[in-house]
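ingest -> fold -> write
write: protein_1
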Amino acid sequence: MTHLWTSEALVAAMDGRPIGTLPDGISGISIDSRSLQPGDAFFAIKGEAMDGHDFATSAIKAGAGVLVVAEGKLPSLGRLTAPMIVVEDVLVALEKLGVASRARSEAKIIAVTGSAGKTTTKEALRHVLSAVGKVHASAQSFNNHWGVPLTLARMPVDCDYAVFEIGMNHPDEIRPLVKMVRPQVAIITMIAAAHLGFFKNLDEIAKAKAEIFEGIEPDGAAILNRDDTRWKLLDKMAHAAGVEHVFGFGENARSTFKLTKCELHADHSDITVKIGGHDISARVGAPGRHMVQNILAVLGAAHLVGADLDKVALALADLSAERGRGKRHVLRHPKGPITLIDESYNANPASMEAAMALLNATPVSGEGRRIAVLGDMLELGEHSAKLHAALAELIVGTETRTVFLGGPEMRALAEILPDEITTEYRGGAEDLKPVLFAALRPGDVVMVKSSKGIGFSKLVDALLGKFPAESATNKQA
């Protein structure tokens, strides 16, 4: 069996103290006893809400090969007889292991950040690069102070490519993480009004995202959105950080990775992109203009890491949207099908605009309507009421004429939507559920969009529970 890490390498990387007879090595790394696989090392990280040391017994029962625990917690672990590696601080030990993992890797490393589209871009890179080599990438949205070192530590020594998502909602969060990742290529998808509660303006958000430039390897590259209003600022900051190769993607005439043709359809897009003097044509299996923009960055990154672009372009046809990020379901209503678009994972003004465009591009059938089910956009601070109210203009400009709104911040929008838009407002997802269920009819297209913390994913789950989806259509998006 091939080990992810030998126990000897684990102890050395983390400056740990072994207790008991350690296994030859471990097959994986876990910080959650519920998802731990037999043979994994269990890192007992102390989080804000829970302490991993409290779950050490559960980890042993689940088959952990070794426990990584803090020196100060040893007395509270009592008579545990499992093999252990004792360290001063478990999170710091995980960071050290991540750094050691990066040092031993010969993979081409790509890092992704941005106000919207991070996870979608990361997953698209995982998908297309899998057509040309062995790929390691962040699970879910593991993009913070524990998610990034965990993803690094899990990186197999023999992978050809690795893709890391790096997020932030405060300054100085990306900087230490990207210095661990040390990418050859870094992507900033876009700058938009996300986390404005922690920043004065979009320039400040751009400056925080620009911290990613500080970790790019010598002779590495930055890929920036040439159509973004903050392009000049980011370009300037990339060069100031010592990045010699800065490339743009978009429709802008001066883009290095330039979109020259784009046909948007309900369940896919057909595009042509000029890269390195060649025209690359591709069908993108996941729909939406925002998806096309992300794919330009994906193709650019694939080109820069030397991947076979013909194989990469072919792989785009099989791309599908993730749960909460545009995944489609056809619900079996007793009187006929209803299309559900699940955008419930995250929301800010930019992604709200993209989601409404996606809804607008999806055809209804028969007497069906386009229905937007919108929940609060979080972390917008003092700008929140204004930015929620501004969605009225966006909605009026589409063919959506039925809107269900939930959450305290959405009241600002509910109060100003014109009479031509049929509007139902409730305090939250639970209060909205019966009203929405009663209103649905065959042929409708329903799009659910909100920030994760509002819990609108429960509406999606409830719809899927009441009207089981036809799985054959799931792959369309």
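write: protein_2
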Amino acid sequence: CQGKVDPKVIEMMYKMFPKGHSHGQSADRDARHKQAAVHPNEEDFKAAQDFAQHILAKLD
């Protein structure tokens, strides 16, 4: 799952790439960083656990 990105990395990327560049700052990119900041969460952990149990069940 996508998770929180270190703010220092975000700042570095925004300095390296100008607005308009695919890795530069944009409203869409800022929104994705904000959404990613709340992950992984309990729902993500439960989904990972369910997936692992499903795979282990196939091995039996």
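write: annotation protein_2
The chain has one domain: 7-59.
The chain has a mean pLDDT of 93.
pipeline exit 0
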